[in-house]
């Protein structure tokens, strides 16, 4: 079930078998595919963003949600009047099952090339995270990517038509996490758009970011959070929209699209400040003495 609506599967497809179906259902409430600004659309869910960019020479998709949500994403693309085969690239933000679980099926169905950082590409090929991930041990495996997969470096631009989408390395939540930025124009006004990977310091039970062995991971988190805050950013999407209030903004946009509530030049700075506080609070909790038994 996705958002209370069944997605029919004609046959058992190993690339779309549900992962953590009951838990993941909280992210997958259906959301109408919507043009947000210029050539930029959202084709995902109430609590899980998937973005689409129409370059005029083909489509770029950002993220793929879960295997069980692939049919809904594909239906959303078609509802907008696009053809699935026009998706040329699928950009990955992070190699976790909730954002990358649908990559293999979407790439197979569209013929698109997946694009990811080198650490993410390793995870996508093997279908599971490694021990350097703070959530290692609790993350379900995801369908391994066997088709075309292109590795990008930090700062490298993916070009299709006249659109450049630039990779921004944002490791921490996962070693291979990547955010993406581009410009989109409407009525002669061009804005900077950022699709940010998760920057949330979450982990398996018992993991301590304050452990001296994890000092480098904490430093990486701080660098990533600061970097996101410094990006040119007029419109912000986060992989989980509720991480930035994007779910509330979308609901506002549905009711009153003018003035566009997504336009907020301070959005990335606000996200950075919020997650600096969240990281600091996590470290402070870990520093407290354990309650006596």
Radius of gyration: 18 Å
Q: Based on the structure given, which CATH architecture is correct? A: 4-Layer Sandwich
- State the major sheet: 7 strands, mixed
Total helical segments? 8
Q: Given this structure, which CATH class is correct? A: Alpha Beta
Proportion of residues in helical segments: 25-40%
For the biggest β-sheet, the strand order reads: 1-2-3-4-5-6-7
Please report the distance between the alpha carbons of the first and last residues: 43 Å
As a percent range, the share of strand residues is: 15-25%
Q: Could you say which overall geometry the principal axes of the C-alpha atoms support?
A: globular
CATH homologous superfamily, by name?
Ribonuclease Z/Hydroxyacylglutathione hydrolase-like
What's the order of the H and E elements? HEEEEHEHHEHEEEEEHEHH
How many separate domains? Answer: 1
Q: Determine the structural class based on helices, strands and strand pairing.
A: alpha/beta
Kindly report the average pLDDT value: 93
The CATH topology assignment is Metallo-beta-lactamase, Chain A
Number of strands: 12
Overview of the molecule:
With 293 residues, the chain is an alpha/beta fold. The chain has eight helices and twelve strands. It has a seven-stranded mixed sheet. Strands 8-9-10-11-12 form a five-stranded mixed sheet, with no helix packed on it. Helix 6 packs antiparallel against helix 8. The relative contact order is 0.13.
């Amino acid at each position: 079930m996705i958002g209370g609506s069944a997605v029919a599967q004609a046959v058992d497809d190993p690339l779309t078998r549900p992962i953590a179906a009951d838990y993941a259902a909280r992210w997958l409430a259906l959301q109408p595919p919507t043009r947000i600004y210029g050539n930029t659309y959202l084709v995902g869910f109430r609590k899980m963003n998937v973005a689409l960019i129409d370059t005029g020479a083909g489509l770029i998709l950002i993220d793929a949600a879960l295997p069980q949500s692939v049919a809904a994403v594909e239906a959303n693309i078609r509802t907008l009047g696009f053809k699935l085969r026009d998706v040329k690239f699928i950009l990955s933000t992070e190699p976790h099952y909730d954002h990358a679980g649908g990559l293999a099926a979407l790439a197979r169905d569209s013929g698109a090339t997946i694009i990811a950082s080198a650490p993410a590409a390793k995870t996508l090929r093997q279908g599971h995270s490694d021990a350097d991930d703070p959530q290692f041990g609790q993350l379900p495996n995801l369908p391994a990517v066997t088709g075309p997969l292109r590795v990008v470096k930090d700062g490298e631009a993916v070009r299709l038509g006249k659109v450049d989408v630039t990779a921004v390395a944002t490791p921490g939540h996962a070693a291979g996490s990547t955010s993406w930025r581009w410009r989109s124009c409407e009525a002669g006004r061009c804005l900077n758009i950022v699709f940010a990977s998760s920057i949330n310091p979450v982990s398996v039970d018992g993991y301590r970011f304050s452990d001296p062995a994890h000092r480098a991971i904490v430093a990486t988190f701080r660098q990533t959070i600061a970097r996101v805050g410094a990006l040119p950013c007029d419109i912000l999407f986060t992989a989980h929209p509720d991480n930035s209030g994007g779910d509330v903004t979308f609901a506002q946009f549905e009711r009153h699209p003018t003035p566009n509530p997504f336009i907020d030049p301070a959005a990335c700075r606000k996200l950075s400040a919020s997650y600096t506080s969240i990281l600091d609070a996590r470290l402070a909790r870990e520093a407290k003495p354990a309650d006596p038994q």
